[in-house]
Records
---
Amino acid sequence: MRKDTRPYFHLDRVCLGFKPPSILGSMQHGIPNIQSFEEALSHVELTSLQKSIVKGRYIPMIRHIYMRTYTISFLFHSSRIIITIGSLIVPALLSIQGVSTTNVQVYWATWVISLLVTISNALVALFKFDKRYYYLHTILERLISEGWQYIELTGKYSGFYIHGKLSTHENQFVYFCHSVEKIRMKQVEDEYYKPEENQTQITASGTANTSKVASLLPPTPQEGEFSVTPDIALAVKEQLSRQSLENAGGKNKESEKNRTAQSVSVSFDMS
């Protein structure tokens, strides 16, 4: 089989235009916790459509984030090692450059190492390897935690969204999908989208209207999370009855004023 030598240009998957180590391909199907999650999912009472959604959306998402995390870890640690060790070697070479008999070799070695340190430091600052390293690891752990909380029916899947009902995998499925998609869209929003930027539009009259760009996060399902509890219902009922009494009292006062005015006018007519 002919080896694929095409360059990869996504910096989360490559280093300086070359394909990452071949071990990544063999590790793609051996991601920790995924095999055990798939085995636990096979014993969960879900419909075939719901299981296919988990296998076709959630699990590939975990694998994709894991591959990006592995590659960005390789780039981050490699650049940090080059910067740290190179920063120690360059001053040492400069200190022996004047007393050494091989000044030319020491000069070029110092130049190459200092160039590698500068390039590595520039790549880390340009592509933010350090921030992506911590951010992608956080997203990966959050996605894995969401999956296991759903399988175990613990945390917010233990009946937090449905008050007074038995929590099952089937009635918690929509909330699980929403949580996963919310994490995913939050990642897209943080990496590629800036909702905090203001968007300015020029109207026909020439005035400028400034409005914030809408967020990419999907709305939270309304059922359960915003359900009306008996305490809230009683408070609303008392408020409505209080408002009705106030309205009735206002109407009575107006009728009394009208009667008084009519009696005064009648007395003036009789006089």
---
Amino acid sequence: MILLVVLMIIASLSAVVTETAQNSFFYQQYVDKMVRQEQVMALSDGVAEGVKILFSRDDSNVDYYGEYWSYPVPFSLHGISVNIEIEDEERFLNPNILVKHGVVDEKAKAIFDRLFEITETGAEFTDKLIEWITPSDVDDGLKHAPFDTTEEIKLIGGVTPEIFNGRIEGGEFKPGLRSLLSVWSDGKVNINTASKWVLMALDSDIDETVASKIISYREEKPFKKVDDLINVNGITSDIIYRIKPFTDVNSKHFLVKSDIGIGDVDYTLFILFVRSGGTVREVWRKIR
């Protein structure tokens, strides 16, 4: 299946690259900046169409690592190198769920408090996230509206590069906020793809041992429904009842990252897709 998808993406890219090559004498060694930009735009269209083809062949009821979308797709074509990676955004926690209709969701707050305690980020960051998104007419320099991008979290006071990107302390990796949070999700965590830190944050009775058992179980047999967690040693019906409003077994938002190299110039393409049923829609696209 993955070979078929790669061939489809290559076919999409080959058509647009060949057209660009035919229309410009300066392609490859003599390509100028404008031509490279046109090629990147054409390539981005090919990547987008290829990803849509990929997800049209995916079972949207369950998403897990091991499906063909979860593997990197590297290849070269006409002197252009491309590496495509797809990130499941429902593996993260969405900070926007902390406040609903102007009121703090205490259950969601407890999850974030645990997350920042587990990762030793600092429990005060839950309150800082809440202050940032809670509606208010006070002019205090805060947004008082939901996060629009995950990068926006860096604007919050106290969020250092180490806290946002991750750090090594005492030989142990401490994940950064970018590895834990995403504003591009429906607010429910996919238990088939969530990291151990996010799984542990979901409930106080899910410690590192239980979280590791969840990960080991899903590697052998992905969860088809949240209730299947009962098959994991250490998970009780009470835990499932508490985490059910915040969990799922599939994903709706996928962030595509594609590294593109044309000659000695590198570009990075980002495309966010949202999937609803059998329909895949592009939300936004950025090229850096």
